[in-house]
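Hi L.,

You mentioned the student needs an example of a multi-chain input paired with its predicted structure. This one should do, with 896 residues in total across all chains.
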Amino acid sequence: MTAYEDLERLFERRALLSEARGLLYWDRATMMPAGAAEGRAEQIAALAVLTQDMLTGPEVADLLDAAEAAAEAGGLDDWRAANLREMRRDWRYATAVPSSLVAAIERAGSASEMVWREARPGNDFARQRPYLEEVLRLTREIADCRAQAFGCAPYDALLDGYEAGLTAATVDAVFDDLADFLPGFLDDVLARQAAAGPPLRPAGPFEIAAQRRLATDLMTALGFDFAHGRLDVSAHPFTGGVPDDVRITTRYTTDDFTSALMGVLHETGHALYERGLPAAWRRQPVGAAGGMLLHESQSLLIEMQVCRGGAFLAHALPLMAAAFDGDGPAWDRGNILRLYQRVERGLVRVDADEVTYPLHIILRYRLERALLSGDLPVADLPGAWNDGMADLLGVRPPDDRDGCLQDIHWMDGAIGYFPTYTLGAMAAAQLYAAAVAQSPDIVTGIAA
Amino acid sequence: MTAYEDLERLFERRALLSEARGLLYWDRATMMPAGAAEGRAEQIAALAVLTQDMLTGPEVADLLDAAEAAAEAGGLDDWRAANLREMRRDWRYATAVPSSLVAAIERAGSASEMVWREARPGNDFARQRPYLEEVLRLTREIADCRAQAFGCAPYDALLDGYEAGLTAATVDAVFDDLADFLPGFLDDVLARQAAAGPPLRPAGPFEIAAQRRLATDLMTALGFDFAHGRLDVSAHPFTGGVPDDVRITTRYTTDDFTSALMGVLHETGHALYERGLPAAWRRQPVGAAGGMLLHESQSLLIEMQVCRGGAFLAHALPLMAAAFDGDGPAWDRGNILRLYQRVERGLVRVDADEVTYPLHIILRYRLERALLSGDLPVADLPGAWNDGMADLLGVRPPDDRDGCLQDIHWMDGAIGYFPTYTLGAMAAAQLYAAAVAQSPDIVTGIAA
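Structure written out for the whole complex:
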């Protein structure tokens, strides 16, 4: 076997361990009883360390060198050459950070997430604080290790982990523009909305079983294959699993069906992307998702560009009305469309609209940089959050539940992730506009 | 660190991988969509190979030798010395079989189990046959490898894998006795039952949600802690998970609630045993379950000795009647007791009573030995099964669904497992009799 072929075998074994680890995460979020959290963290840490250690031996470095020499000599086709570049990237990540730190962040992130599940509904930032501090301390160590190895700034090293090549300089350029433009634009939108009067809200309660049936019907209509995936419930919606078993989650409330439904359609976008990854390169680095920006562009393509539009509603609204015995003016298509495209100075990111969503992200971007650098102590986060909301969105959260405790990301150590959401939203809008410009019958296709 | 301490570290890491693998099995049986089966088999095989390879290097043999020398010099206390003996046992197993065979049986067992999920309800032995043949071929190879390494017969090597030290000679002595005694005894029991007339069966349908609530109430009464476990549904009931997260399954039918309920109480016995394993030795070989005979003695202690008895019914019957609005003579305690202790020439092992159950096991024991040796070709299994049922139990299955396709064990490669069921039943009866003889107030305690 050639060095490259040896590497393919190695990365396949490694991917299988990562897949197993992914299932342990999914189960933790959806199925695991609370008393199992410590044991689960140990299982995940052990797999994470093994996955890391598979790349850090000297023989892997030798194989990479040999394969790269072969590639330079023209011995690899384009896919294999690209795969080799992604292998080198994985190797750089694995060798940058000691495996003790990998195990430590898994344990701390798990403990922090388990506390968050109670601290958020209990509005108890004081309880979360020491866990978040520990996660942040370890994330900072990881960022510093990577920064040293990659020769970049610590925050850039975290950004790069979610989207290869992304830097704070790039994010700043885009976000500064948005931060200039959006507040005035938001005023304009709100003024125009006010002139039209508020849309009516369909009255609940909306039975959860009916919400679930509707969600699975629409998932199926969008192409989600339940022979290769599941829909479950978790405290924070996410997409997990593997391309032949994509697992999405949502959370239901009986007061409203839109939040859960649009969440499901969003995750369905992630799921379709995972399911559509090139099967011939399954378990090779080049066959994995192309970063979180691209991933988010696919979820928002489905949710924001397709499912909140009139064409999709032509298909979906009769199903919605049937699911909840909806009747009357609140269920009128024009009204629902206005409701789904409504812009509001809201508190909660996952419920935000296209206009305000980037402002939620800009807030998190600024705060996480300050948290990472140490300029913002964790103790000051609630105040800084609320001030930022007042400044950017013009609303001040009445509590931490819908303030700085609302998202799972930082609790788990995911710092540098949020910017990909807004960059992904922009990519989604561009992709959809380009697609419709090229094939206008896409819109009638969606309605049919 | 001493050699023994190094080994404890190694076996802890190994146990964490086994725990992860256990979750992958549990998920496959309860949650996984069918389209993920091949990928899951690869994940499980990769973990199985890694778990095996952790013990097969020369440094592990050296550590074991050094630790054993220290133990002989009196350097280890009783628990550690026992742990070391179990480590050596695990090492013998790991080094006996090439890891390629370990991966192959995982793949073949998975494919066979997935087919069985459809072949059983479809009564389609022809479809199952090639899968069972392949599993059997690989099981034979494994048995041969172990037989050579351990210096014993191939079937004994499989028995030993489920219960250390168990041999066909031991099983034969017990089973020959039972096979002599039981047919005549069964006639006597059936004659006495006939004189008393048949018990009444509570009339259904029994709503599955109500069955589940009743089951979880009784699990809780028996000491099952839902902060450390779950109850789910699978095609074949089992107990999985780890001591701090014990996962039991059942299968419901609306015609009858007793089968699912008694299945749940049976698995609860397994669960209580797992949960009660010594926490100080978690993830060390000496802290693992003491073989499947002992495990089954605990499930049958709960199900057969406790839950099918009058004292438990004093507690449970009012809950059962409330769950299903049960009223009238069928819900009389004496009637239910006769129903739960009723002896019948039935077709299905998991629904069998104390008297006929060993006959189901003796059939399987004889057939699996013949399958393993090759004396019985898989193609002849349905006929041999039906003849054996007629011979031992006096009934002939009308189809393979409730004949040779009824159990998952062989489909997955579990040959040598069945004997522990009847030996466990005998141990359960002995344990309960000894406990009650020593503390007669156990019975009133159960009723209260």
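You could point out the following to them. Chain B touches chain A through 32 residues (CB under 8 Å). Strands of chain B lie at 229-233, 239-242, 245-250.

Best wishes,
N.
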